[in-house]
Amino acid sequence: MPPREPGAPVLLAAIAGAHGVRGLVKVKPFTEIPENVAAYGPLSDEAGRRYALTLKGKAKGDLLAAIEGVNDRDAAQALKGTRLYVDRANLPPVEDDDEFYMADLIGLEAQAPDGRGLGRVINVVNHGAGDILEIEPRGSATILVPFTREAVPEVDVANGRLVVDWPDDE
Questions:
Q1: Which of 87, 88, 94, 104 is buried most deeply by CB count within 10 Å?
Q2: Within a 10 A sphere around the Cβ of 66, how many other Cβ atoms?
Q3: How confident is the model at residue 168 (pLDDT cuts 50, 70, 90)?
Q4: 3 pLDDT above the threshold of 60
Q5: Per-residue pLDDT, 109
Q6: What is the pLDDT of residues 19-55, one digit of tens each?
Q7: Got the DSSP string for 109-139?
Q8: Rg for the chain (alpha carbons), in Å?
Q9: pLDDT given at position 55
């Protein structure tokens, strides 16, 4: 059984701050193709407020976007840190067994190569050096595993599991 509901929100981007004085925001996209952040309809924050982005350009790795109703620097800066989500149902289906959305990893059972259960994936984070799986084992501290083919050789979203071959999985 897949770990996430079909309509569950998926994090697509975060507002990194204001750009200029006319209300543009810098948007850090988490999509494979950065410009796709605006391709799936209006985005929502954790409180359910909706944001329609109109992309205006790029600046230092971020996208620049206008948001309806945000007309000055103060209003744009007030949105800094806002995480933007889309309903999973709005995203295109994956076409290959080896493709998935990062959000689909949350909730998967992590197993060692010998089949021993290690815990569940509770988060996928990226602090700039690559994606990291945060795995919550039963009864101990979380395990952080780099999300690489070497450390995670198998991802089986359909069956709700992934294999972790990492020295810290003991």
A1: 104
A2: 18
A3: low
A4: no
A5: 95
A6: 999 999 999 998 889 999 999 988 999 999 999 999 9
A7: EEE-TTS-EEEEEEEEEESSS-EEEEEE-TT
A8: 18
A9: 96
Residue 4: pLDDT over 70: no
Q: What is the Cα–Cα distance from 89 to 170, expressed in whole angstroms?
A: 37
- Spatial CB neighbours of 20, under 8 Å, sequence gap ≥ 6: 73
Q: Are 44 and 86 in contact (CB under 8 A)?
A: yes
How crowded is residue 109: how many other Cβ atoms within 10 Å of its Cβ?
Answer: 16
Asked whether 96 and 105 are in contact (CB, 8 A), the reply is: no
Q: Over 69-104, what HEC string results?
A: CCCCHHHHHHCCCCEEEEEHHHCCCCCCCCCCCHHH
Distances (CA, A) of 132 to 31, 77, 91, 125: 16, 29, 23, 5
CA 2, 4, 5, 8 dihedral sign is negative
Starting at the earlier edge strand, list the strands of the sheet with 131-136.
143-146, 131-136, 117-126, 109-111, 161-163, 154-156
